[in-house]
Amino acid sequence: MTATNDIHLLLRAFCDELGRCSIAGAVTSPGSRSTPLVAALTADGGFPVYSQIDERSAAFFALGLAKASGRPAVLACTSGTAAANYLPAIVEADQARVPLIVCTSDRPPELRSIGAGQTIDQIKLYGDNVLSFTEVGVDRLTEQTGRWIRSLACRSVSTSLGQRRGPVHLNFPFREPLLPSAQLPDPTAIEIGRADRRPWTARAESFGDPQAAAAMLAPIIASAPKGVVVAGRLEGDLSGPRLTRAATAFSAASGWPLLADPLSGARCGTDSVAHYDALLRAAPLALSAQPKAVLRFGDMPTSKSLRSWLEQLDAIQLLIDPEMAWQDPGLATDLVVDAEPAAVLELLAASCTVGDAAWADGWRQADAFANEAIDATLSDQLSEPAISRQLGAQLPAAATLVVASSMPIRDVESFFANRDEPLRVLSNRGANGIDGVIATAYGVAAASDGPTVLLLGDVAFAHDIGSLVTARRLAAPLTIVLVDNRGGGIFDFLEVSGQERFYEQHVLTPTGIDVSAAAATFGLHLLEPSTLDQFASALDYGLSSSGTQLIHLRTERAANVELHAQLWQAVAAALAR
User: Fold this and answer.
1) What is the pLDDT of residue 322?
2) For residue 555, how many C-alpha atoms fall within 13 Å in the half-sphere facing its CB?
3) Across the chain, what does the average pLDDT equal?
4) In the CATH scheme, what is the code of domain 379-576?
5) How far is CA 268 from the centre of its chain?
6) Which stretches of 174-254 are assigned E, i.e. beta strand?
7) Which residue from 262, 508, 254, 301 is spatially nearest to 389, judged by alpha carbons?
8) How many whole angstroms separate alpha carbon 206 and alpha carbon 317?
9) Beta-carbon neighbour count of residue 524 at 10 Å?
10) Which fold has domain 3-197?
11) Which residue has the higher pLDDT, 190 or 509?
12) What is the spatial distance between Cα 422 and Cα 426, in angstroms, rounded to a whole number?
C-alpha cells in the first residue's frame, strides 16, 4: 500500500462514517479536483449519491433533500468559483436552519496565490453563514488520523444537527495524482470503525434535558460494573459545589473511582483517586483489570499518562458536554450527551447501584500507596512538587488558587492530595498559554471574597510582569508564589533539552530578572523562604495580609528532573510490593 493511497483510504473512512450517521444523501457536480471525494462518496453505497450539472443547482437540490428528510445532506464540488456558487443555498440553509455538510475541494497550499488555475481563497469562504469551518489535511493514514477523520465526520453531522441547525464547511486540499496509484483493498481490510456500524462518536439528542440524558446513559452504566469517572475543568455556571457533590455521589453510588483534575473542584473525599497521574505513569496495567466504561465531563485533564491510557482502553467512553464543545482530543468518545453534568450525575447517582466493590477498593488502596510513596520521597525538602503539594494541603476552602500553565499546572495535577473540602483552582487552560496569568489572578482577587494565591514560574512571571502595576491600584490582596528555576524548566523534561546548540538561548530562555528589584519597583512585599517550613509560614503570612505578597522560591532544574523520576519509581515500587 503506497502513501499516495492514504488520502483515498481516509476519505473512504470519512464517507463510511457519514453513512453510519444516517445522512440524507450526497450531491456532486462535475470537476477534476473533487475526484477523490466523488470516488469515496460513491464507493460503498451506504447512502444515495445524486449528480447535478452546476453547483448552484446542486446546493439547492441538497437543501431540498435535507428539508424533506430532516437529516444533513452532503455537497461535494471542485475548487475555485465552483465553491462560490454554493453561497445562495448556504445562506438559505443558515437562515432556515437546514443541516448541510459542504465539502469543497481545493488546491494544496503550494498552488495557492501563485496563479494556478481554478484556485481562489476558500478559507472560511462562507463567513458567518456556516456553523463551523475545518481545513481538512489528509495525507497519511495512521491509527490517529483514521480516528480523527471518523470523528470529524461525526462532529460535522452533530454540529449541523445541534440546537441551532445549519450548514458546516469542510475544505479538502488535494494533491495530484487524484486517483489511487494501485487497487484499494476491500473495505473490510481497512475497517477501523466501531462494531455494529455504530458511529465513531454518536450524539444523544437530549437537547439539554438531564432526564433524557440520564435515561440514555443509565443502561450503559448498569452494564459496566467496572468503570471510572474522569472530571476535568468545567468553569462557569455549571461548576461549583453542586457539581462536586454530584460527581462524588455518583462515584460512591456506582463504585466507579473518581479521577478528578484539581481544576474540576472534585478532588476531595474518599472516592476521589488523587494520584491517578502517578499510578498510570508507574504501572498502567497494575489495577487487576481495565474498566469497561468511562464517564467524563469537562476538559480532558492535563495528565499525558491519563490521556494515553484512555485512548488505549477497550471501553465504551461517555462524555457529558453541555456546550457540545467536542472535548475529545484522544478521539475515543463513543457517545456525547448535551446536558448539565451536575443534574445528570444527580439522577444517575439516585438510580444506580454499586457494581464491583473490589474494583473501587483496589483503586483506593493504590492511591493510598502512591500518597505514602510521594510523601516519603519528598520528605521535608523544598522542591517544586513539594511546593504544589503544600499549597493543596494548606490553602483554606475559602481560598482560590490560580495556576500558570506549563509546569505548575502539571505539578498541581500530579501532587495535590485529596482534601476534606474542595478547593477552587483556576488556570488559563483553554488555550494553555502562559501569558497574562498575573493579570488574571488580580481579576480573580477582585471578584473573590476569600484570599487568592497565584502559582507561577519565572518565565510566566516575566511574560506578564507589567501587570504587577495593579498592586498599587487594586486593594484586593494577592499572594504570588514564584517558582524560580531560571528558565522554562518544563523543557528539561523534553527531547529538545539535548540540543546544546540552541536549547538554552532559544528554548529554555532564562530571564535574568532581579526579583527583589522588581518587587521594590512595583511595591510588593517580598519573602524569600529557603525551606519548606519557611514557605508554609510565608504562605500563612500572605493569606492573612493585605496588598500583594511575593513569595520567591529558588529551585534547581536538574534536581527537579531527577526528583520527578524518583517519585515515579517510588510509586511503582509501592504498587509492586
Assistant:
1) 85
2) 33
3) 90
4) 3.40.50.970
5) 22
6) 202-204, 227-231
7) 262
8) 17
9) 21
10) Rossmann fold (3.40.50)
11) 509
12) 13
